[in-house]
Design brief:
about 375 residues; alpha/beta; five-stranded antiparallel β-sheet
Length: about 375
């Protein structure tokens, strides 16, 4: 596949004629809507020739139980694992079901497509935010820890889950070793029962990186304990932060390079965002809140406002600005250029694969490009 960047005066018919491809295919692959207006700087995926896939990788994508059945059905052929988001727990290790709907239908769909359904475990408190006191309670008490692991194991047999993903964030520095021990114990028990264990890792770049996101996670210990890990290489640009790329490639590379000093490449999955943000300007710390948007939506905003899409060569990420009712906006998102750069990192470092946060919105060009670059390692 090739990538074409729209120039001034381009039209779908002109592009298709010049590239000797079907305009209908170009429209379908890039999810364009009638009358197929384009933004200058928009990146289009062009399907030409044979696949260039070099090797097999594992691909996962988090999803909530309220995902559209159509979107899930479209996405599952491109996945090897489906982490369902998410189960919580009490301080005593009792499991709490997903508050977002019933998950059994997702498990059944995953199995139908030969995809591993994964139980995602998160320490959400009553306010819906990560709660490190829940983590502290469970990982430091052998009774509560054993109770949580056995409850997960029982649920997996009951519902058909084939693995567990431990997504704990804001772990207290004092709980670092206890958390690693919890992951090790979980993985050993799951492995003995034929299940796999993964752990999500905040994007560290050094052993002694400061901050609540980082100090409680020991990359080496967790990499040794779990069957594989996910580097959460996104959210540099985030809801309450200043406008910038969600996953700037220069920062992502730093995380991967550090991770490889602690964890074998064959255990590392690269996190990839499937979304962008729209910030109102001027940005004011503690006040400005960005709107989360999907990648197709971002391009449609650019088209509707005659905005020219730029591409930051350092971050390897598209962005643009526009004005709406007197308010300036800045948008950063992912397109096939930024995704291609991330796929190149997977190839360059021989990583196990990638994991998406999240697959709730369908972005066809991403999956077509992924399948062109790699074979999907089905179970």
């Amino acid at each position: 596949m090739e990538i074409y960047v729209v120039k001034e005066e381009d039209s779908i018919d002109d592009i298709a004629e010049a590239l000797e491809i079907s305009p209908q295919q170009l429209i379908f692959d890039n999810q364009l809507i009638y009358p197929y207006a384009l933004a200058i700087g928009q990146a289009l995926l062009v399907e030409k020739g044979a696949r260039s896939a070099a090797r097999a990788i594992s691909v996962s994508g988090y999803a909530y139980p309220f995902i559209s059945p159509w979107v899930l059905e479209q996405t599952l052929p491109f996945l090897t694992a489906l982490p369902v988001f998410s189960y919580g727990f009490t301080p005593e290790g009792e499991l709490l079901p997903p508050p977002y709907g019933e998950d059994q239908w997702m498990i059944s769909e995953a199995l139908r497509f030969g995809v591993l359904p994964i139980l995602t475990l998160t320490p959400f408190g009553p306010d819906g935010n990560f709660n490190n006191q829940l983590i502290h309670s469970v990982v430091n008490d052998s009774v509560y820890r054993d109770n949580l692991i056995q409850n997960m194991l029982g649920l997996m047999y009951e519902k058909g889950y084939l693995g567990v993903d431990i997504d704990f964030e804001y772990i207290l520095a004092e709980d670092k070793d206890a958390f690693s021990a919890f992951v090790r114990q979980t993985a050993e028990i799951m492995r003995a029962n034929g299940f796999q264990t993964s752990v999500a890792l905040a994007p560290k770049t050094s052993d002694d990186q400061k901050g609540l996101l980082y100090e409680g996670k020991d990359y080496r210990a967790l990499g040794e304990a779990a069957d594989h890990v996910l580097l959460m290489t996104y959210e540099w640009g985030y809801t309450y932060g200043p406008p910038m790329a969600v996953a700037p490639l220069n920062q992502v590379r730093r995380v991967v390079e550090y991770a490889l000093t602690q964890i074998p490449a064959e255990k590392i999955n690269l996190g990839i965002p499937n979304y962008g943000y729209d910030w109102p300007l001027p940005y004011e710390r503690g006040v400005t809140k960005a709107e989360t948007i999907n990648n197709i939506q971002a391009v449609r905003i650019a088209v509707a406002n005659d905005a020219e899409i730029q591409f930051d060569e350092t971050a390897q990420s598209p962005f643009f600005t526009y004005a709406d009712q007197g308010t300036a906006h800045e948008v950063w998102f992912e397109d096939v250029r930024s995704l291609s750069a991330k796929f190149d990192l997977i190839k360059e470092f021989g990583l196990r694969g990638c994991g998406y946060w999240q697959i709730m919105q369908w972005f066809r060009a991403n999956w077509l490009l992924l399948k062109d670059r790699f074979f999907i390692e089905k179970n």
